[in-house]
Amino acid sequence: MTTSATGQPLIPQPPATVTALRQAVAHIAPAALPAFTRELDQAADQSRHASDLAPLQRFITQWAAYVHIHRQPQLAARFRQLEDLTEVGDASQARQAASEIGRILDEAYAAIGYFER
User: Fold this and answer.
1) What is the DSSP string of 19-66?
2) Residue 93 pLDDT class (50, 70, 90 cuts)
């Protein structure tokens, strides 16, 4: 991942569209592109089969939050540390890490306007 010398986000938060999010992921976390594409295909299939846009809306919201976190190198690094702690830490460390992950996710969803709906 490219880093920002000033501690600022690497890129501005993109609009919540598939195209803009794909471009953002390609820039800040290119290794995540296969997951992005796979999950987009799954959401599109689910939306088609159910004649419902909810799966695509969930996909866009989830990836907008992902971009919000990963465009900030220090926050992304902390998020990865916490994910690791949930797997290798003791029960207390795992609970604390899960709690902080939840807080980071809540802040990301709030920042992209998800909780305003």
Assistant:
1) HHHHHHHHHH-GGGHHHHHHHHHHHHHHHHHHT-SHHHHHHHHHHHHH
2) very high
